[in-house]
């Protein structure tokens, strides 16, 4: 369970989160939406402690993220996997080395790392052949899979994806979303995703809309289509950028 209370963060005069409150239940799959620059990445980074809020608090399973130090802080970090906006792979390392990086850093021998990396790569739909490749040899979609595999190595309880599908074609978008949904289901990981892609509504169970430093709306994905608020309505229509998907067209849930 993630509980955010009165979270405030500003950069100079620019107020990004303003006494923001948000709760994410265990096992929830939450899509965070909002205009570019509104502060979605800044919000999620504060949740995992990558950015320090000016005031307010974030509690993960009762532990206050902002107050923790040393081992307790590392414990929280281990709980949270953060898949960055850009895959953030190290270009000079192979896929194997990128995915296994944490174990290598911990001094684990290659024969122990190999099967673990292979298992995670398989779970994101990549084969053993990809192990010796360098990031430059991979397509955008494959890089995102490798980034996810690397995060899964940490066995996180909470997974945060920052725009996992940006720059991908619609088929790859769907594949990544399906992979996220499958990971969510199989591992029961509380999942937060920032997305500008309307297709995410076919997978996420809840939607939260960030606007002017606060969560202006949070509720089940299926209800977003009926939301009366004109801003949300317009935003969703803008996202769909074409024929509006009607609730009756939604295939799942
Ligand atoms: N480290 C930083 N220092 C100063 N300003 C920052 C920093 N990080 C973010 N900002 C500012 O905070 C605001 C929110 O940024 P953020 O990256 O969270 O937006 P976003 O909603 O994720 O946008 P996008 O959809 O384009 O990724 C922006 O105005 C950005 O310039
Ligand atoms: Mg962002």
Query: What is the residue-mean pLDDT, rounded to a whole number?
Result: 88
- Bound ligands, named by name, code or SMILES: adenosine-5'-triphosphate, magnesium ion
Q: What is the string of SSEs from the N terminus onward? A: EEEHEEHEHHHHEHEEEH
Secondary structure: number of strands: 10
What is the molecular shape? Answer: globular
Distance between the termini: 22 Å
- CA radius of gyration: 18 Å
Give the CATH class: Alpha Beta
Class based on secondary structure composition and strand pairing: alpha/beta
Q: Helix count, per DSSP?
A: 8
Order of strands, widest sheet: 6-7-8-3-9-10
Largest sheet: 6 strands, mixed
CATH architecture verdict: 3-Layer(aba) Sandwich
- Extract low-pLDDT stretches: 242-247, 249-253
Tell me the strand percentage band: 15-25%
The H-level CATH homologous superfamily, spelled out, is P-loop containing nucleotide triphosphate hydrolases
The total number of structural domains is: 1
Helicity, in percent? Answer: 25-40%
Which fold name fills CATH's third level, the topology? Rossmann fold
Description:
The chain is an alpha/beta fold and 253 residues long. The protein has one domain (2-249): Rossmann fold. The chain is 34% helix and 24% strand. It contains eight helices and ten strands. The protein has helices spanning 40-48, 70-79, 95-99, 101-105, 110-123, 140-152, 170-187, 230-240, and strands at 2-11, 14-24, 29-33, 55-60, 63-64, 80-83, 158-162, 190-194, 206-211, 214-220. The strands form two sheets. It has a six-stranded mixed β-sheet with strand order 6-7-8-3-9-10, with helices on both faces. A four-stranded antiparallel β-sheet has the order 2-1-4-5, covered by helices on one side. A hairpin with a 2-residue loop joins β4 (55-60) and β5 (63-64). α5 (110-123) packs across α6. Mean pLDDT is 88; it is low at 242-247 and 249-253. Adenosine-5'-triphosphate binds at residues 11, 14, 16, 34, 36-42.
């Amino acid at each position: 369970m993630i509980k955010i209370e009165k979270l405030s963060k500003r950069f100079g005069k620019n107020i990004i989160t303003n006494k923001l409150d948000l709760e994410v239940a265990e096992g929830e799959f939450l899509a965070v939406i909002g205009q570019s620059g509104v502060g979605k990445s800044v919000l999620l980074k504060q949740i995992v402690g990558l950015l320090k809020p000016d005031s307010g608090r974030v509690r993960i399973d009762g532990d206050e993220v902002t107050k923790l130090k040393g081992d307790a802080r590392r414990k929280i970090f281990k709980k949270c996997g953060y898949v960055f906006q850009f895959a953030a792979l190290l270009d000079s390392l192979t896929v194997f080395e990128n995915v296994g990086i944490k174990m290598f850093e911990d001094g684990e021998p290659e024969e122990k790392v190999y099967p673990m990396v292979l298992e995670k790569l398989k779970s994101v739909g990549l084969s053993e052949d990809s192990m010796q490749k360098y990031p430059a040899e991979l397509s955008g979609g494959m890089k995102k899979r490798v980034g996810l595999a690397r995060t899964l190595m940490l066995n996180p309880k909470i997974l945060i994806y920052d725009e996992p599908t940006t720059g991908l074609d619609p088929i790859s978008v769907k594949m990544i979303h399906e992979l996220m949904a499958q990971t969510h289901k199989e591992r029961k990981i509380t999942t937060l995703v920032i997305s500008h892609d309307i297709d995410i509504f076919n997978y996420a169970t809840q939607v939260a809309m960030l606007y002017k430093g606060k969560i202006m709306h949070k509720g089940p994905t299926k209800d977003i289509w009926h939301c009366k608020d004109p801003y949300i309505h317009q935003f969703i229509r803008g996202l769909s950028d074409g024929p509006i998907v009607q609730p009756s067209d939604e295939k799942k849930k």
